[in-house]
Write a structure and sequence with these properties.
The complex is a heterodimer of chains A (about 200) and B (about 550). Chain A has about 200 residues and is of the alpha/beta class. Chain A has helices at about 1-20, 85-100, 165-204; strands at about 30, 45-50, 65-70, 70-80, 105, 120-130, 135-145, 150-160. Chain B starts with 17 loop residues before the first helix and ends with a helix. Classes of the chains: A alpha/beta (about 200), B alpha/beta (about 550).
């Protein structure tokens, strides 16, 4: 009598184990250029304040936006950003600008908001997604204001190819597109703030 | 040694013969069981065979299988469905002449949802076993369950002149408790009334006597009567579902002791609502009189009360009263006839006097005490009026209308023409009130008030001058320096809230933290909104795999 009971118990356990291991519950977390590990000195150049990067609601989360068809997008469930995309982009923007433009001192609370002599950079990210055709797309608007004056503004959009399948490659492509865009932005900011300094000199 | 040859005697029956014998016994048993151990076969007539399947649909009594439908076919006239059913053995007692069958299926009605089990098991036919000694083999299957399956109770008939309809199946309620059902509702075209057949089971049937009142419980009833606004509400369930209520209303019948228990098929009046239940007065204890009014009074109508010495002694029966063959445009009289009824039961319940004695008393009052009827206001709010009978009215009064001859068989009570009189009275009352107003005192008071006002104005002027002086003094005494100091302090306090202060930074950080927390909570809230049970059950979907650029792959 015992043997059949043991056998059925073993079978039940095996079935349960089989069912429970059927779903892989591992989550993958991604970072942009390892921003969590980086630190860049704010420097002691001319202060430029960076306001929070703004994003649409559907981007500002931990899900990665992936376009699966011409009119269909999905928010990933198991492949996620390590933090909300807004905070990742804000931090990476500050670090990249500090690295590219050491003559300025960038920071989120670096000078008082609304002070007339402190330029403020504002960025609005409009797109940051992987696309089913094997590319990724990033796009943002930026503007520099000082006091109530709009000093300069522009939009930067970038499409990069994804070099292989999977989310590792997608994030790598997004990272590349974002870095290139920030490098372009750095160039624009240098020109813009340079002009502003010259104008200030002329005024003086 | 000689061999001894032994001869074995062969068995007459071989063992192998037991096999066909056993088979024969089994076959015989089966044949017996299939032919002789069967239950009765019955024929069921159905209006249609929705959900009924031959060989599958069961017949149940109190959820116990007692038979099965064997075949279904159309009746020869093609108007019905004929189902042959085989009952289980030993069920002969269940199928009597008064047994009832109905189709059990999912029903949603005012009593709730029933028969949900048939969603899984399929329709079945329910049997309510009968008690009749007479057996039967053919039955008509009801489409709906019979409302009264237990015959112990009362079957009553209710008549209603109202067009408010109560549908069969509606509930009868006694003080809000379910106490019966409406079985049937028909319109009697000859009498032009609705006739309802209702069943009141025991023990509620014991509550019903000849004085019981039935009314349609429509929910909430408002009525504006001579004595103000009346509101009557029913139980919440009745407000929602409607139905009929009954009760032995106190005062509903004048002689409640006379109420007797009723038998089956007793006819009751079904009132429109509870408020329209009025006491019924015996016709043989009422006296009818005519009074003439010089103008049609809109406030006076049927059921308006008739008072004598402040006691209601009757009601207006018809207003106006048109006798038989009356032709209104041929009547050149300026008076309108009103038929009133003096009801003995209203003022004398014990019937000490006969109705004839009361008639003589009233005649005596008319002749010797100048009994006169007049129309009086009952409620200013509703404009309702009543008739007041007064004795000892001046017979020489110019407004008294006296008709000595009876009017179409009814004796006439003299009445007062108050059309002019009332206006004159009102005018004189108004002028009297105007004349008695203390005009002189009023004028004096107003004068005093004006003087007081003048004084107050002077005081305000003086106060303004003082304020000016104080302001000048303050200026001279260099108060502005103190003000400046106070402002500096305010500036310091405000500085602690400025954007480069520590407090501001702390606040800013706190807001950022809060913002980030809310961002984290947002997806959870969205997920719970999409799938309420996602907090308990995991909806772990796989992500699509992003493919690399094909051109790159080719390279």
């Amino acid at each position: 009598m015992r043997l059949p009971a043991i056998l059925s118990l073993t079978a039940a356990l095996a079935i349960t184990a089989g069912c429970s291991s059927g779903t892989d519950s591992i989550y993958h977390y991604y970072d942009l250029d390892g921003f969590t590990r980086q630190s860049e000195d704010a420097g002691s150049g001319k202060p430029v304040r960076i306001n929070n990067v703004t994003l649409p609601d559907y981007l500002d989360g931990q899900s990665i936006l992936f376009q699966t068809g011409p009119n269909e997008v999905t928010q990933t469930n198991r492949n996620r950003w390590i933090a909300s995309l807004g905070s990742i982009l804000s931090n990476s923007l500050v670090l990249r600008l500090r690295k590219n433009l050491p003559e300025y001192s960038f920071g989120e609370s670096i000078c008082i908001q609304g002070r007339d002599d402190c330029p403020v950079l504002q960025m609005n990210v409009r797109d940051f997604r992987g696309i089913y055709d094997g590319t990724v797309h990033t796009e943002f608007d930026w503007q520099i204001t000082r006091g109530r004056e709009l000093v300069c503004h522009g939009s930067i959009s970038r499409t990069e190819n994804q070099n292989g399948d999977g989310y590792d490659n997608l994030v790598e492509a997004l990272n590349r597109a974002w870095k290139t865009s920030l490098d372009d932005l750095s160039g624009n900011i240098r020109t813009c703030l340079g002009k502003l300094a010259q104008e200030d000199l002329k005024r003086k | 040694m000689d061999k001894i040859l032994t001869v074995k005697k062969e068995k007459l029956y071989s063992f192998i013969w037991t096999v066909p014998i056993v088979a024969l016994i089994i076959a015989g048993t089966l044949i017996y069981r299939s032919h002789f151990n069967k239950g009765p076969e019955i024929t069921l007539i159905l209006s249609k065979a929705d959900g009924i399947e031959a060989g599958k649909t069961a017949i149940k009594a109190l959820s116990v299988n007692v038979g099965k439908i064997e075949s279904i076919s159309l009746s020869p006239d093609r108007n019905n469905v004929v189902a042959i059913a085989r009952m289980n053995p030993g069920t002969d007692d269940l199928i009597r002449d008064d047994s009832r069958f109905w189709i059990q299926k999912v029903r949603i009605d005012r009593q709730g949802v029933s028969g949900l089990d048939t969603l899984l098991s399929g329709y079945y036919i329910e049997l309510s076993p009968g008690n009749s000694p007479k057996p039967a083999r053919m039955f008509t299957v009801l489409d709906d369950p019979p409302l009264a399956t237990d015959d112990r109770g009362l079957y009553l008939t209710l008549h209603s002149e109202s067009l408010k309809k109560v549908s069969p199946g509606s509930i009868l309620k006694f003080k809000g408790i379910e106490a019966g059902h409406v079985l049937d509702a028909n319109y009697d075209f000859d009498k032009q009334i609705m006739t309802y057949r209702v069943f009141v089971p025991e023990p509620y049937s014991r509550l019903i006597d000849s004085g019981t009142k039935f009314w349609i419980s429509s929910g909430i009833t408002f009525s504006m009567g001579t004595d103000g606004l009346k509101v009557d509400t029913d139980s919440v369930e009745n407000i929602i579902s409607g139905g009929i209520s009954f009760d032995n209303i106190e005062g509903g019948n004048l002689n409640e002791d006379d109420d007797v228990h009723v038998a089956n098929d007793h006819v009751f009046v079904l009132y429109n609502d509870r408020l329209s239940i009025v006491p019924t007065y015996a016709q043989n204890r009422s006296l009818n009189y005519i009074i003439f009014l010089p103008y049609p009074d809109r406030g006076l109508q049927a059921e308006s009360p008739v008072f004598f010495k402040g006691v209601q002694v009757g009601v207006v029966k018809k207003m106006p009263y048109f006798p038989e063959n009356y032709r209104i445009f041929h009547d050149y009289s300026k008076y309108t006839a009103v038929l009133i009824s003096i009801q003995q039961e209203r003022f004398e319940k014990s019937s000490l006097e006969s109705i004839e004695e009361i008639r003589q008393d009233i005649d005596n009052l008319i002749r010797n005490k100048n009994l006169t009827a007049s129309v009086e206001n009952m409620s200013i709010l509703t404009g309702k009026k009543c008739i007041d009978l007064q004795s000892d009215v001046d017979p020489a009064s110019a407004n008294r209308i006296v008709f000595n001859a009876p009017y179409h068989g009814y004796q006439v009570i003299p009445s007062l023409d108050k059309s002019l009189n009332t206006i004159q009275d009102d005018l004189s009352r108004f002028t009297h009130k105007l004349a008695t107003l203390p005009m002189e005192d009023l004028a004096n008071n107003v004068n005093q008030l004006l003087k007081n006002f003048q004084n107050t104005a002077l005081e305000i002027n003086a106060l303004t001058g003082n304020i000016n002086a104080i302001a000048e003094k303050l200026h001279k005494e260099n108060v502005s320096q103190e003000m400046l100091n106070t402002l500096r302090e305010v500036q310091t306090i405000l500085g602690s809230y400025s954007s480069d202060s520590a407090l501001y930074r702390d606040l800013s950080l706190a807001v950022k933290e809060l913002n980030s927390t809310l961002k984290g909570v947002k997806p959870v809230v969205s997920k719970v909104n999409e799938k309420t049970n996602s907090l308990v059950f995991s909806y772990d979907r796989q992500d699509p795999v992003p493919a690399g650029k094909k051109e790159n792959k080719k390279k």
